[in-house]
Fold each of these.
Amino acid sequence: MEGLELISQGAEAKVYKVKNFLGEPAIMKEKLVKAYRHPDLDQRLSKERITFEVRNMIRARKAGINTPYVMQTDFVQRKIYMQYIDGLKLRDFLFQYQKTENMTELLKEVGRILAKLHDSHILHGDLTTSNIMVTHPVAETTKLYGQIYLIDFGLSYIKDSIEEKAVDLYVLERAFISTHPELENEFQELLQEYKRVCKQGDKTIKKLNDVRMRGRKKVAFG
C-alpha cells in the first residue's frame, strides 16, 4: 500500500488518502480506540459501527444515491477502505462558485438526493456541507459540476422518524447558513425540492419548523 496522507481527524476516526490500494487511489478510514472503554467492549462497538456504516452506504447506493464504494474492511485494525472521490466538499465548492447561475440547480439536486435518503429511512447523523462531495464535470461540457456524493456514514442509522429526518435537515441548515449566509435563499430552494420529492416531505418540513423553534429557545435561554 503506497503513500498515506492524513486528510482529517475527528473524535471518532482518522481519514487518510491512500495513493495506491489494489491498484487505485483510495480513502482509508481508521476508527479510533476509546481508551476509557474496556478493550473487548471497544472492539465490539467498533465492529458494530463499521458494519452499520458499510451497510448504510450500500443501502444508500441501492436507493440510487452516490456513495463511495467499499473496497475492503478490516475489523481487527478498525479500517474501512473505500473509493476515493476526486472532487470538492460542497462547503469548498460553494465558496468557489457561489455566484454562479447554476448554483440553485445544484442545491435542488442535493434536495432530491436527501429525499431519496430519507425515503429509504436512512438518517445520516452528521449531514453537513463537509460530508457532501461534488465532482468535477466531465470534459467538454458546460455543466458546473459532475456528480454529487454523500460521504461519512459513520453516525448513520436506520429509522422511520419524521422528527429525526427533520433534525438531519436542521443540522445541514445550520452548517450551511453558518458558512454561506449569502446563499440562504438558495438553501430554501433545496428544502422546497426535498419537500416536493420526498414521500413525507411536507410533514418533515413542518417538523423542521418545530426543530428550529426549539433551537432558537435553546440559544435564547442558554
Note: The mean pLDDT is 91.
Amino acid sequence: MPSRTRPSPLPPVGVVFVHGMRTSSAIWHHQLDHVRDAGHDAVAVDLPAHGARHTERFSMPAAFEVIDDAARSFAPGTPVVVVGLSLGGYTSLAWAARHALGAAGAGGTRLAGVVAAACTADPKGKPVALFRDVARATVAGRDALRRGATDLALAWRTALVGGGGPAGGADLAALLGPAAGRASHTGSGAHRPGWDVVTDALTHLAGRSSVGHLRSIRVPVWLVNGARDQMRLEESRHLRAAERGALVVVPQAGHDVNTDAPDAFNHVLTRALADFSRA
C-alpha cells in the first residue's frame, strides 16, 4: 500500500494574548496551553492597571509598550500573532494599525495576524464620554450600584447605536469585568481593578476608530464574537473594513467568548493560525 504523507506542521509563531477590562492575563490559560501544545510560543500580558501591573494607570501608549515588550520576547525572526478580547481587542487593533505605520516601538516585529474578539462596536464618533461619566457617578455612589449598572448598560448601548434597549446584564458585567465596584483582592490574592480603570480606558478609546484601524492593518484579521454578546453591533462594517478578514460567531457564548466556550475558541485559534501561516 502506498504510504500516506502526514501534513507538514505549521511554522511556529509567537502569540501575544491581551485580556479585557477589569480582568487579567489569567483568563487565557486554556488558550496558552492549546497553542503551546501545537508547538507555538505564547505569552499572556497584563495591561496597565490590571494583574501584575495593577499599580500603574491605564493608557493606550503604556498598553502599546506592554505589547511591544511581549512581541520582542520571542526568538528573533518569529512571526507574531496578537489575540485580544474586548478592551484587549480594541488595543490589539490599535497596536496593529500603529505597527503598519512602522512605529519604532514594535522593534522590527513581523506581524502575521490578529484575532480580535468581542470588539466590533466602533467607539469613534459616539458619545463614549457619556458612558465614562456614568461610570464615574456609579463609583461615587456605591449605594446605588445596581441602579448604576443598569444606567451603564443603557449609556453604553445609547453611545454605540444611538438608542434602543439596554444591553444584557451578563454582557455588561463581562464588558466591565467581574464584581463591579471598588478595587479589591480575591481570596487567591489576585488584584481586581475597580471602575476607575473604566474611565481611564474609555478616555483613551474615545476618538479612536476600530474600523479605521482595520483599514490600516495589512495582515489578516479574524473577528470573533459570542452569539449571545449583545455588543456585537457592527460586525459587517468591521469585516468590510479589513483588507483580509474573517468573522466567526461562536454559538452559545457571550462577551467573554474565550472562557464561555474555550474549546470552540481554541478551534478558531487553530484555524486562524493556519490562515496566518499562508499569508
Note: The beta strands are 14-18, 41-45, 80-85, 111-117, 184-185, 191-192, 221-226, 245-250.
Amino acid sequence: MAILSPRAATAQDVDFAGQTVELVIPFSQGGGSDVWARFHAPLLARHLPGQPSIVVRNEPGSGGTRGSNAFAEDASADGLSLLGTSGSSLFAYLLGDFRVRYDFDDWSVLMASPTGGVVYVAGDLGVASWRDIAALQDHQLVFASQGITSLDLVPMLAFRVLGLDANYVFGYTGRHDGLEAMRLHEVNIDYQTTSAYLQNVAPMVAAGDAVPLFSWGIVDADGSVRRDPTFPDLPTLEELYEHLHGTQPSGPEYDAYRVFASAGFAAQKMLVLPGDTPPAIRETWLQAIRAARSDPEYIARAPAILGAYQSLVGDDAQHLAASVTRIDDATRRFVLEWLADEYSIRLTE
C-alpha cells in the first residue's frame, strides 16, 4: 500500500485518502483509554491529509500486555497502525513481567497525555465524604482488578499506605469492568481515570451511589505533589494520610507508590507508531495532532471529557516517555518481593 512516492518524501507527500487507520487500545471498551481514544480519533482523522477513517480496535487481556505484544509483532510502519498505551502496559514493562514482548524504546512516541484519577467507594458504606476515611478502616473493602502489573498497582499501593483492608478480585479486563462491578454491588471500592470518571462516575456521585475519596494529584517539575486541577475539592493521598495520621507518609510502600503514581499518570496515555515509521509519516501525524489540539471542537469538549491537562507532542513527548520508562533497582525489587510474598505472584522467570 503506497502512501509515499519512491523519491525522498516529505510530510506534504503523505496522503491517507481512502485508507483506514487502526488504533489499537489494549483494554476493554468504556474504560479511560477507550474514552481517550474515541475522543481523539475523529478529530485526528479530520486533520490528516485525505481524512482517512480511524477505527479503534479494543484488544484487552493480561493487563494491557496482550494487545501491546500484538502491536509490537504485527504493526505496519506505513502510518496506518497506532497503539494507545496506558500505565498498565508501562508497569508490566517496568517490572520486567515475563509476558512482555515489547520495548518502549522500539516505538516512536507522538503524544503523551497526562491524566488523573479518582478513588471512590460505594454510597452504601456509610461515608459522606473523604473526611470520613477513618470509618472505612472498619470495613472489608473489595476491589475489581485487571491485574497486578496493570495501573491497578497504584491503588493497591495506596490502600496499603492508608492501612485499608482491601481485598482483590483479579481477572477483569479493564477499568470499565470494575465500574460495572461497582454498579452491580460486587465490589465497594474502585478508581477510574479522569475521562472515565467524568463521564461515568460523576453521575453516580450526584445520585448518591458513590463517594469520592481522593485523587492521584499531579506532580510539578520540582517533584512536589499538588491537587489535581480537575478535582480541586479532593485531597491527594498525601493529604488524606495526614488527615488520618497527622504526619506525611513515608517508607518503602510510599516510595513505591510515588514512583508508580508518577509513571502511571504523568504520561498515562501515549500514542505511538512503530519505531521504523518513515520520518515523513511521523511528521504528518504530528501536524495532525497539533491541528487537532487547536480545533474548536477539541477546545470546547476536551476539559469535560479528558480533564484539565496538557498533552505533550513530538520530541517533548518522546523525552517524557524516556523518563517514565525507567525504574531504579531498589524500587523494582521492593515491589516484586511484596507481590511474591503477599500474593505468590512472580513476574520474572
Note: The first strand starts at residue 20 and ends at 25.
Amino acid sequence: MYEEASNSNLIMLLHTAIYPFIAALIVSFITGKLLRSSSFLGYLGGFIVGLSLIHSGLSFPPKQAMDYYSISVIIGILAFVSLYLSKSSTALKYGICALLIGTSFYFLLNPVLQHSGIHMSIIWSVACTISTLAYILLSHQTNNSNNTESKGFEKLEPHTPMIGLMIVAGSAAPVISIGGSLLIGQLLGAFAAASAGYLLVSLITSNRQAFSSAPAVIILAGLISQSHVLADIPLHVMILIAASCFVTPIVRNLTQKAIPTIISQAILSILISGFCLWLVWPESSLY
C-alpha cells in the first residue's frame, strides 16, 4: 500500500512539476533561438504538457470546461500579437486584447455557469476581463530606463511580471488543492513550473520582450476564477489570491527595482496563502 502511494506521489510530481519544467526549457530555448520574440511560447508549451498529463481526458475540440485551456493558450498568443506586433493605435490594440480575453473567460466559465443563464457567464467574463486587462496595463507602465540596479540584478527587471505570476501560482496551488480541486491545484503547479523553465532560459539567453506575461496572466486568471466557479473555493479566497497578483506591478512601478518587487511578492503571497489555507482547511482529516 505504501509503495503504491509512493508511486502515485512520484507520478503526480512528474506531471505537475518536472515534465512541464523540462518542456518549457526545451520550447523556450528553441523558440528563443528561432525567433526571440516568441520565447514566451516556452511556458505555454510547458503548461500544455502539464495540462495533457494532469487532465487525462483532454480533448480538442473542447468538450469540458478544462479542455478550453487549449483555446485560452491560443487566445493568449493572439493577445500577445495584438499588443506586441500590431501597429494599430493603443486604444484599438487594447480593445482587441480585451475582446480576446473576454472570449477566453467565457469559454472557461460558461460550461459551468450556463445553468444560471447566459447573463451570469457574461458578467463573470466582463469582471475577469477588466481585472486581467488592468494587470496588463499596470505591469507595462514601468520605464525600464530608470532602472538603477546593479548589472547583476537589472536583467531581472523585465521579467518581474512573470516572476510575480509564478510566485502567485506556486503559493496558490496548495490552497486550491486542499480547499477545492486537486486538478486545478496541479494545473497551478504546472503553470508555476513551466514559468520557471521559461524564466531560466530567458535569463540565461538575455531574451527581453514586452507583453510576454500577457498570455500567462490570462491562463492564471482562468485558473483562479475556475477555482471558485468550478471547484467552489470561497469567493473571498479567490479575490485574495487574485488581488495578490497586483503586488508585483504596484511595487515595481513604485521602486523601479526587481529585488524589492520579488521579495514583496513572495512575502505577501506566503502570508495570503497561509491565511487562505487556514480558511479552507477541512474539519475532517485529509487522510
Note: Confidence is low (pLDDT under 50) at residues 143-150.
